[in-house]
């Protein structure tokens, strides 16, 4: 059973992309087993989160098996696998993600007219342990708010850092991840060739940053924060002030 393998808990794999990717490359666990575990988890949690609109389980398993065969045949070394992975022609960011070794397992929900910040979608699956990463689009918060509501991570990149081929220009495409450390990894993978280099791994001098917060935006489509969120914000403000001597405004 997959859950008996190191790096897999409660029947599905855990750990960041770097950690998980090492197991198939070292033949400690197969790509098919990893993908199958996530598919099982998708089936288990989708009853509750209703996030998947187009499963591609069979295709994902076929792709995983082809990678396992390539590894078993020793046609590629571990180093070569980091740079040469089977990929189909897709939208640019899908092609780039596939080229880095990603295997799509499902297409997930989008709210009607993209006019809601609901979480019956990619973020719900990732938060429920049914995937490590997802790709989405953002106009007013769709890459940021659902991850925030579900306890995971999303990032809206600088415009045109990632390709928006065949997308409306006012959209930004970007990653959603279960682990914060995978955001920078995904942005490196998805960054548009020729775009400016961004030092994702360079330490940030937090003392030079400014922090702002608000308890309500006065909008009729969203509520002011509740007591629990207010307490959490107060704790964060106090931590920033105490640790970095920065006033949060």
UniProtKB/TrEMBL annotation:
It holds the Pfam family Amidase. It comes from the Eukaryota. GO terms for molecular function: hydrolase activity. GO terms for cellular component: endomembrane system. Residues 123-242 form the Amidase domain. InterPro entries: Amidase_dom, AS_sf, FAAH2. Keywords: Hydrolase. PANTHER family: FATTY-ACID AMIDE HYDROLASE, IP13792P. This is Fatty-acid amide hydrolase 2.
């Amino acid at each position: 059973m997959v859950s008996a393998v190191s790096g897999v808990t409660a029947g599905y794999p855990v750990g960041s992309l770097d950690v998980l990717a090492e197991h198939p490359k070292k033949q400690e666990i197969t790509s098919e087993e990893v993908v199958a575990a996530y598919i099982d988890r998708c089936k288990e949690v989708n009853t509750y989160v209703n996030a998947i609109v187009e499963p591609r389980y069979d295709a994902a398993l076929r792709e995983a098996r082809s990678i396992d065969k390539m590894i078993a045949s020793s046609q590629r070394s571990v180093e070569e696998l980091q740079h040469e992975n089977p990929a189909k022609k897709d939208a640019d960011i899908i092609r780039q993600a596939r080229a880095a070794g990603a295997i799509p397992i499902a297409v997930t929900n989008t709210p009607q007219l993209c006019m809601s910040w609901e979480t019956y979608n990619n973020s719900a699956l990732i938060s429920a342990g049914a995937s490590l990463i997802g790709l989405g689009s953002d106009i007013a918060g769709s890459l940021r708010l659902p991850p925030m509501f579900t306890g995971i991570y999303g990032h809206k990149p600088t415009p045109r850092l990632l390709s928006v081929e065949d997308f409306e220009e006012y959209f930004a495409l970007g990653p959603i991840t279960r682990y914060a450390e995978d955001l920078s990894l995904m942005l490196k993978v998805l960054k548009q060739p020729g775009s400016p280099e961004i030092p994702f791994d360079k330490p940030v001098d937090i003392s030079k940053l400014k922090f702002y917060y608000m308890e309500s935006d006065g909008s009729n489509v969203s509520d002011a924060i509740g007591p629990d969120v207010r307490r959490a914000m107060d704790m964060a403000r106090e931590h920033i002030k105490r640790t970095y001597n920065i006033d949060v405004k």
